[in-house]
## 1
Amino acid sequence: MPPQRDIGLYIHVPLCRQRCHFCAFYLEIATPARIEAFLSALQRELILYRQQNLLAGRALQSIYFGGGTPTVIPALQLAALLDRIRNLYSVTPDVEVTVEAHPSTVTPSDLMILAKAGFNRISLGAESMAPQDFIPIGRPGTISETEQAVVNARTAGFSNINLDLMYGLPGQSLASWTTTVQSLLRLNPTHISCYALTIEDHTKLARDIAKGLVPAPDETLQVEMEEAAETVLASAGFTRYEISNYARPGYACRHNLLYWTDGDYLGLGPSAQSYVAGSRFGNIADLDAYAGQLRNDRLPITDRRVLTNEEQQRDALIFGLRLLKGVSNNLAIEDAGQRDILTQLTERGLIVNEHDRITLTPLGRRFADSVASELF
Ligand code: SF4
């Protein structure tokens, strides 16, 4: 019997206090009624999957509460939810349990409750350490709230703290970005994610750029910012292990590694995506429709696809290439069509195939999405 793949659970909370100007995710504004609707439907979804025994007894090696903003849900209710998950599913003794949080949504006592409940990793959306960067992107909150949230999280017992940053923000200079990264390092996180701002259609930011109110991102500057971040973070002891992710030794995010190392994940909540035992499936992106299906004891899945072995290999290659260590070349060369594409990508200097591994070159990392779509 082949070894069973690692599996994690993802809980998607599609609720925020307000919508940031760049955000195109499905989400709703958090009110007590919407939080209640979400939580009661989620309980039903957890039970239905447990009854179906989809995980076949496999223990969860990670649980990740993402969003949206999971911490718009009161901490005691998040703690109760985690408790419920542990009662319904097996977890490994060293399970990684992450909660994403907006710094303005967590008080010291919330953080104490979450740490005591078993959350052992927190991911705070810092986005920038320069207050002027928040205005064009409509990101609420202040820099001091970020700083205070990190201090409070550590006091509560979180020793594994991720901080998210965005670069290429309107009006942001290379010098200001470098200062942001350096200021963030003073907070002593274990993990940092750096995402380039992308402009999504139908967002307020896209409309503001079209009206000339806000400058469009400069791709050349974004590349310089990415290089600067890698240099500053490397000199501070962080290893870049994925295109957007840097960690101190031993602190790579175990849950996100599942996505890039061909692991399984079950996603619950409106719009959550899953990959379990060779099937990809996704939930409906509408809280009322999601809750309605679950009230009738039906899983709120809108699309499901069983992947062939070749498709599974292709996906493992595409996602694995996001890792700096790439993928084993044994994985990729079974399919003749993909072998041809890989040869072309090599000739164009986007990937290298050496020491039994295929990796993106620095140029390939810049065009990672195009590489992925060519391989798809
Ligand atoms: S906090 Fe995140 S999910 Fe919520 S609106 Fe802002 S970017 Fe979107």
Note: The chain has two domains: 7-260, 312-376.
## 2
Amino acid sequence: MPARLFVVHGSHPCATAEQALELKGVPFRRVEIPAAMQPLVMKPMFGGRTVPGIRFEDGEKVQGSRAILRALERRVPNPPLYDGAAGAAAIEEAERWGDEVFQPVPRSLLWTAFGVYPRAMHAFQDGQRSPKLPMPVVLAAAKVILPVERRLNDVSDAATRTAIAELPGMLDRIDGLIAAGVLNGERPNAADLQIAPTLRLLWALRDLRPLIAGRPAEAYMSRWLAPMAASVPEGALPMDRADASGAPAAAPEGQAAPTG
Ligand SMILES: N[C@@H](CCC(=O)N[C@@H](CS)C(=O)NCC(=O)O)C(=O)O
């Protein structure tokens, strides 16, 4: 049996692991776990509650995008993921930052935005192997999924405003890594695989596009990754109140999304 990669469709660290498997030419089967169910499925099998996790054909189990990339590098050295003009140490440090600091940003923002526009969740099923749920089922499921995801990801108005306020500095850092040749080299390295999927998910939040558009990071994010068709309409995030303290969220939960 080929390797089995346990994912939640649309998850950015899962995209990291999938891309690495494809680059290394390792055959794998994607096992899709419904959103918010990963603690129930992953914990008993891998010990931790998050996706991605992989079970290789020889039975070795590895959880976490960075650990999966390292296991792949060990098993299939070519093409290398930690080798490039900028040097392995710079790639590893950018990868660490991409995982620990940058990766959590879209999580809190996305679940805030879905709270405002739950209808937008329907299109995020595009490309999944499991059959797509119809809109009424998505809206009913959202009532269960949203509170669980908000709890799992520590979503709060304060965290949302902090993430928005810190995003330009993070984008500056990515532009700097591109200029320094740590990212965006001839072929994707481990840091590219970690950072580009997070950028792509942020782009799916239309409120954030003005912060990203025109930067080197904008062209970079879709160099190796197909753009996401799904997006969340503008007005989902408290952009104009990013610095305000104590302001309520942008709109009441469950409000219908505008068309488009
Ligand atoms: N940094 C880890 C974290 C992965 C992670 O948090 N995945 C999310 C989905 S994007 C998850 O499964 N969350 C469920 C939870 O926090 O219980 C990695 O790159 O593997």
Note: The beta strands are 3-7, 28-32, 53-55, 61-63.
